[in-house]
Design goal:
alpha/beta; 7-stranded mixed beta sheet; about 375 residues; 6-stranded parallel beta sheet
Length: about 375
């Protein structure tokens, strides 16, 4: 038997996190079994782990060997959880470890004993059977911790750049820009010669990005934020933004500043605003409040959602393989990830740890090692 971390939201409105015994997986011919030694706790993972529960209501129970965490889901948030009520759900989009068993296919056998990264869900497990095609063999000398975040953040950041090119934009805007993903996107844009406007919330985040070579950094904490953002947009010509916050006024402010930047060079007035299309894609939900905006950006605009997996389906296998090849080639440089702390299953279920990584704050990302003692 092996352990797996599960998340359950009951119809009564209670979240329960606990460890479950699951059978050791047996690989199908096209599969490998990975001893998972590193799995990042990304915002997308935490969204499934905690659902809409109020982290401030976390309580610990159970035993030292089998800790249990409970929390309350506010009544107003329960309708959004309807599809998962009373279902014990495995968690973890991606991770890395050593292949300890392999199916009969040549592709699976070729990975036996290798250190690989994988994406396939339920990676918060001690052992996970995954199709060989969903694995990425890591370069020699790469640890599971170094390869744990090979998929979600690298492919998301590359996907943003790919979307920019496919939709005819010339530069990018990114919010929550001091995150691991934001730093990755910053390195990609510097390497590829793409102008990137970074939006952060705090002066220390601005200092961090400027120390990493970012040219355009705008802080929402500054009283001149909107003017600073408009200046950066006018200089870069950015008309595409990716917003990790989701709620609040930021997405609308970005569109408004894009319109103001475009109007600086307008030759004539139009009551319909600029004819240049301005687009904001919301790809996260750090702010759970409603998305609010004022229509001060003309008629040529769009606001919508963007998710990694639908994007990968859109570009097809050839496009995905091209992006994955770049991730492998630049794994320890462009796509390096940094973590505040590595935790075991038991450590991850302690209220003091949840209070830190549950905030999803910049510089407080945890790495889960399901096989850590």
């Amino acid at each position: 038997m092996a352990l797996q971390l599960r998340s359950l939201i009951r119809a009564s409105g209670e979240l329960e996190l606990s460890l479950h015994d699951v059978p050791m997986p047996e690989p199908q011919p096209h599969e490998v079994v990975i001893r998972v030694e590193a799995a990042p706790m990304n915002p997308s993972d935490l969204g499934l782990l905690f659902g809409a529960a109020d982290i401030g209501t976390v309580k610990a129970s159970g035993t030292p060997e089998r800790p249990v965490v409970t929390a309350t889901v506010p009544e107003r948030a329960m309708p959004a959880m309807a599809a998962r009520l009373d279902q014990s759900m495995p968690v973890g989009n991606e991770g890395a470890g050593v292949v300890v068993q392999a199916g009969a296919s040549p592709a699976a056998q070729a990975l036996l004993g290798k250190t690989v990264a994988a994406i396939g869900g339920a990676m918060y497990s001690q052992y996970r059977a995954v199709a060989a095609a969903q694995c990425l063999e890591l370069p020699a000398g790469t640890t599971p911790a170094e390869g744990a975040s090979c998929f979600v953040n690298p492919l998301t950041s590359l996907g943003m750049v790919e979307t920019m090119r496919r939709e005819g934009h010339e530069a990018l805007v990114h919010t929550a820009a001091a995150s691991n993903l934001g730093q990755m996107l910053n390195r990609i844009c510097q390497k590829d010669g793409i102008a990137l406007v970074n939006i952060v919330r705090k002066p220390e985040q601005e200092a961090l990005l400027r120390g990493l070579g970012a040219k355009y950094v705008c802080s929402t904490a500054s009283p001149t934020f909107l003017d600073d953002l408009t200046d950066a947009l006018a200089e870069t010509g950015a008309t595409l933004a990716f917003d990790a916050t989701g709620g609040g006024k930021l997405a609308g402010q970005i569109l408004g500043c894009m319109e103001a930047a475009l109007n600086r060079n307008a030759k004539e007035y139009s009551r319909y605003g600029s004819t240049t299309h301005k687009q904001v894609y919301i790809y996260g939900g750090l702010d759970r409040g409603p998305t609010e905006f004022v229509r001060n950006f003309g008629m040529a605009w769009g606001m919508g959602g963007w998710l990694l997996f639908p994007f990968l389906q859109k570009i097809g296998d050839e496009g995905v393989q091209r992006l994955r090849a770049r991730v492998v080639a630049e794994l320890k440089t462009t796509f390096a990830s940094h973590y505040t702390r590595e935790v075991s299953f038991h450590e991850a279920l302690q209220p003091d740890a949840i209070a830190v990584y549950g905030r999803q704050a910049t510089g407080e990302k945890f790495l889960l090692n399901p096989n850590k003692g």
